[in-house]
């Protein structure tokens, strides 16, 4: 079972593929992106950093045995399931929150520290919830779109949500053990594993997009709306009309 973050990336790739299939061009101006000049500059920074990161991720994807990649994804996904449970509870989804707690308890024990996803085999579905989604459920608006270095695309709402997610992230708080080396190894391993899961999405974007920036931006915004409303988007008038 993939980790929480890698599942989100794969979902974003699917959203991009849906945009391509619908024939929508992504070259039109988007009013949700009033700082496009800044965002394109940050996108270029990320593309530059990826010249180094992507080959490492490709090496990991090509040479790491599949069981190792599964174990890595399961381990980090189990760490995040606890925060997913909190967000489901904050969103009023008690049944899913209880299921998430059950997943953590089962996978942390029978799954040997989360390295094996026993809970999914027992029928407990893995959910993907973060604090940005919770803010959306509470009625907080998206706000302007930003493309940040390293962390990538975010709405204003999701930027604040990401700050909270990072604050409670047990991987980043591994410094509590006074072992900075352990924290850095865990952060680096998770990041490379995450980037490796994005490799299939690279091909989707490269094949379908004339402008990678607008394509990724529009796919992200569409996908996040879908996540906040759990796939049941309210009827609304489009805030802009893409060009043909």
From TrEMBL:
<dbReference type="GO" id="GO:0120010">
    <property type="term" value="P:intermembrane phospholipid transfer"/>
</dbReference>
<dbReference type="InterPro" id="IPR007428">
    <property type="entry name" value="MlaA"/>
</dbReference>
<dbReference type="GO" id="GO:0016020">
    <property type="term" value="C:membrane"/>
</dbReference>
<keyword id="KW-0449">Lipoprotein</keyword>
<protein>
    <submittedName>
        <fullName>VacJ family lipoprotein</fullName>
    </submittedName>
</protein>
<comment type="similarity">
    <text>Belongs to the MlaA family.</text>
</comment>
<feature type="signal peptide">
    <location>
        <begin position="1"/>
        <end position="27"/>
    </location>
</feature>
<keyword id="KW-0732">Signal</keyword>
<dbReference type="Pfam" id="PF04333">
    <property type="entry name" value="MlaA"/>
</dbReference>
